[in-house]
Write a structure and sequence with these properties.
Shape: globular
CATH superfamily: Decaprenyl diphosphate synthase-like
Largest sheet: 6 strands, parallel
Number of helices: 8
CATH architecture: 3-Layer(aba) Sandwich
Number of strands: 6
Structural class: alpha/beta
Helix content: 40-55%
CATH topology: Undecaprenyl pyrophosphate synthetase
Order of helices and strands: EHHEHHEHEHHEEH
CATH class: Alpha Beta
Number of domains: 1
Strand order of the largest sheet: 3-4-2-1-5-6
């Protein structure tokens, strides 16, 4: 099996999972943590280079205040509780997004977890927090404009490589596979630049129910795809003049 270098997951369906069981929406988020742990550990076992999880979007700030406060408390608990899991699996931790919008106590735990795992060499677990694909591109354009204004960059030097270097995580490996749970067929403003040549896999499984077997099914489907990156299959290549 060809393991993708970089897998990104849009973790959808926590609220629906809870509502279907007569529970409050926050219970779905709590149970979704078990899925995060299971999938992160399995990606580490498989040798995935990076797992990026869409944990909290820029749009999520529009949710009710009490739900946001709960999500921030849950994130803080996760960062503390799962440090042993990260260290046991030799995993590194990172984030992308407008992190400065998060509460100070959450940012403090993010920094501690990042520092603690910085020397690990296994899978990188990257949480997209206060993240939006359009916001990332806007922030990248601002950085480039500042360099032009300072005379450090000429406008005609702004190419794809320059833009990539200005993104939240410039060294992010090429995105191979995007998984979305709960059956929705949209990107929801996630990794808009990085997704250009990624394969997209949708499952009806709600995120709190997503486990190793569902990840394996997504990877198996990925392996059945023929990735051409705009080119042709070998059988479709034009014959040479000598042929």
């Amino acid at each position: 099996m060809n393991t993708p270098r970089h897998i990104a997951i849009i973790m959808d369906g926590n609220g629906r999972w809870a509502e279907a069981r007569g529970m409050r929406r926050v219970k779905g988020h709590e149970n979704g943590i078990d899925s995060v742990r299971a999938i992160a550990e399995e990606c580490a076992r498989l040798g995935v280079e990076q797992l990026t999880l869409y944990a909290f979007s820029e749009e999520n700030w529009k949710r009710p205040r009490l739900e946001i406060e709960f999500l921030m408390r849950m994130l803080k608990r996760f960062l503390v509780k799962e440090r042993d899991t990260l260290m046991r699996n030799d995993m590194r931790f990172g984030t992308i997004g407008r992190i400065d919008r998060l509460p100070k106590d959450v940012r403090r735990e993010l920094d501690k977890t990042r520092e603690l795992t910085s020397k690990n060499r296994g899978t990188k677990l990257c949480l997209a927090l206060s993240y939006g694909g359009r916001a990332e591109l806007a922030d990248a354009m601002t950085r480039l404009a500042e360099k032009v204004k300072a005379g450090e960059l000429q406008p005609d030097q702004i190419d794809e490589a320059a833009i990539a270097r200005s993104l939240y995580q410039p060294d992010m490996p090429e995105l191979d596979l995007v998984i979305r749970t709960a059956g929705e067929m949209r990107l929801s403003n996630f990794l808009l630049w990085q997704v250009s040549y990624a394969e997209f896999y949708v499952t009806d499984t709600l995120w709190p129910d997503f486990r190793e077997e569902h990840l394996h099914a997504a990877i198996a489907d990925f392996n059945r795809r023929e990735r051409r990156f705009g080119g042709l299959k070998a059988a479709e290549q034009p014959k040479s003049a000598a042929g």
